[in-house]
Amino acid sequence: MKFLTTNFVKCAVKGCQSSQESFPLKYEECQLVQEEQEYNPEFITHMLERLDWNAILKVAHDLGNDRLPPNKPENLDPIMEDDQAVLRDLHTLLLETQIVEGKMVCGNCEHIYYIKNSIPNFLLPPHLC
Amino acid sequence: MKEYLIYFAQAYPNFRRAELESLADLYNIPLDLQHHDETSPFLIVKLENDEQARNIMQRSVLSKGIYELWGHGKSVEELHADIKARSTDKFEIFKERSFRFNFIGYKGSRSNRQRVKLIESFSYMAFTGRVSMDNPQEIYTVLEEYEVTGMAKATTPINLWLGRQIQLSARSENILDKYDLRTRKYIGTTSFDAELSLVSCNIAQVAPGKITYDPFTGTGSFLVAAANYGGLPIGSDIDVRMLKGKGDDCNIQSNFKQYNTSLYFLDTMTMDFTNNALRTDFVIDTIVCDPPYGVREGLRVCGAKNPEKAAGRENVVIDGEKAHLRRDFIPPKKPYELSNLLDDLLTFAANRLPVHGRLAFWMPTANDDFEINQIPQHENLELLYNLEQEFNKWSRRLLVYVKRDDKYKGETTNGLKSQNIKNFRDRYFNGFNEKSR
Question: How far apart are CA B344 and CA B336, in angstroms?
Fold first, then answer.
């Protein structure tokens, strides 16, 4: 599971749909691996528009990274040297950081989801369906 | 407006128009295909310029190429007369460019000697550019249609066109060989064939940077097809075994590596589509899928088959932990009706797609009890295409919907439910006999 994907998923329980606490999930006991990916700055700038930055900050914090800028970087230009460094960092964080094992916990219902062999599992037990 | 000649492939003629219309719409190109005839591989269309022609053709799977039309005739003499009448101004423009001639024959062809003779008869164009077989600046193509009667080989064409090649299609650039399942590293029993998965992505308007979701990913056939067109695929499936694959070099990720499109691939996750974990405000641009109909994979969702028996299991504790919160807990699955799943799919698409976003999915129908109102409808989605691929006693249909804005008022219907149509799986395994109806 790419770090990026943590920005797309919330608790699957229907009762948690409207809860602010069900997104992002809380990431615990995570095992991370860096996996090299082709660097494409346009991909990052394009993807940034779709991201919920507060959720990025929260998950990064869960995983021990508090070095991100507090506000979403905007209008990044791959030609500018300063922006290049930011884009490289985002590339490393969003695309190259894989969560191989770990728990995802809903802040609302406290259900625990697991990431196993890099694949997050959102299947629910019958009483939560 | 200029005239262009499209040459189609001999495959799925009833899908052609949808594919080209969708590609034209994707690039905001007005294109009128009303006069398209499924029995003929030749079609003349009107476009503003070569760029439009390139755009509609480049991604096409069911076409072979597009040509700037220089002339048409029912005989060689007529062809020359037409070229002289309408294209003389072009001779000067392309005079000095290097060139070659190509021949395309439909239901017939001419010998090399006859080809040379025909090429020589174009000498009035007075090209001074050099002939280059390997790397010409322009390719002039003679397209010929022959008519076969009886067993005899056709010798004289009934239609001839001369066109300047503008763009060959993805098909002509061998996209079908590239994505052939026989050479794909990771496939399974539910893998979808390359040709129609690419066509599905074209009609669904998968495009660079657009998020494409397949809620029934399986081995990821639609994901790799989407990435081929620059779409950003994300997939989910209730069956983790499919997503995992058969080891490090044989899984969905390795397929993306094989096609050199890893950059576009987002992720896959184990998920029951009906209990969806994608956040509601996450924009999904396109949905392309082949839902499980129970033939190869049973249709199941999370839940207890027998709720009474399962009652209270949420309180079971193992080693001091609630059983359902343990890493090794396997949630039980229960059978689910196709009609309900299609309702869920349409509702999800209506809620998540942006206006103009498309939903494309395959649905099987038994030929003996099919009625058009079995195709599910949703009030916010307009059904654009219902394209049938016929087998012996059943068909599968590519259904393509577009999300409309608030002004659109459609009707929500589910014919499978209201007509009490039997489970497709039951009919399939009973050979579609009368008793199983």
Answer: 11
Nearest by CB to residue B270, choosing from A121, A126, A127, is: A121
User: Which pTM does this prediction carry?
Assistant: 0.95
Query: Quick one: which of B283, B225, B373, B422 has its CA closest to A49?
Result: B283
Note down the domain range covering B401.
175-299+333-429
Q: What is the pLDDT of residue B430?
A: 83
Q: Using a CB-CB distance cutoff of 8 angstroms, which residues of chain B are in contact with residue A37?
A: 262-263
Residues of chain A neighbouring B303 (CB-CB closer than 8 A): 126, 129
C-beta atoms of B267 and A5 within 8 A: yes
Task: Give yes or no for residue B110 having a pLDDT over 90.
Answer: yes
For residue B424, the model assigns a pLDDT of: 82
Please answer whether residues B109 and B103 qualify as being in contact, where contact means their C-beta atoms are separated by less than 8 angstroms. yes
Measured in angstroms, the CA of A128 and the nearest CA of chain B are apart by: 9
pLDDT at B297: 66
pLDDT tens digit string along B133-190? 999 999 999 999 999 888 888 889 999 999 999 999 999 999 999 999 999 999 998 8
Q: Do A119 and B269 touch (CB under 8 A)?
A: yes
Number of domains in chain B: 3
| B163 in the same domain as B179 | no
The CATH number given to whatever domain includes residue B249 is 3.40.50.150
Please give the helix or strand (H or E) that residue B123 lies within, else none. Answer: none
Q: Are B242 and B250 in contact (CB under 8 A)?
A: no
Distance CA A43, CA B211 (A): 12
